[in-house]
Amino acid sequence: MDITTPQKITTFLMFEGTAEEAMTFYISLFDDAEVVNITRYGADGPGKEGSVQHATFSLAGQHYMCIDSPAQHEFTFTPSISLFVQCENEAELDRLYAALAEQGTELMPLGTYGFSTKFGWVNDRFGVSWQLNLPA
To answer: Which stretches make up the PhnB-like domain (predicted)?
Structure first.
């Protein structure tokens, strides 16, 4: 299992059975995105056979890692840590916000809050928090 990335610090997302679904969703949102590598649990476990033991994916040149934890936890993602996206235009911001908010939770609806041209904050359906910004 190769768990190296070209960057020193990499965001690591732990899911409980939805890592591949989340990763596939995220790479569908960005033009410059791909699954870099994926290793799956086999029949001998400890995770569910076929689930993600470890994966690396790239969004807009930034690498992320994810796993399906074989252990259930009493915690999940929190908006205290979020992925902040500088959008190139309003159409991109609106598209990303709509996709991420679907079956998710809107924390700050799209609007102008005085610190950017347009901004929105949402937890997606997997619980990952995203801030979407259109700079001034």
So the answer is: 7-132
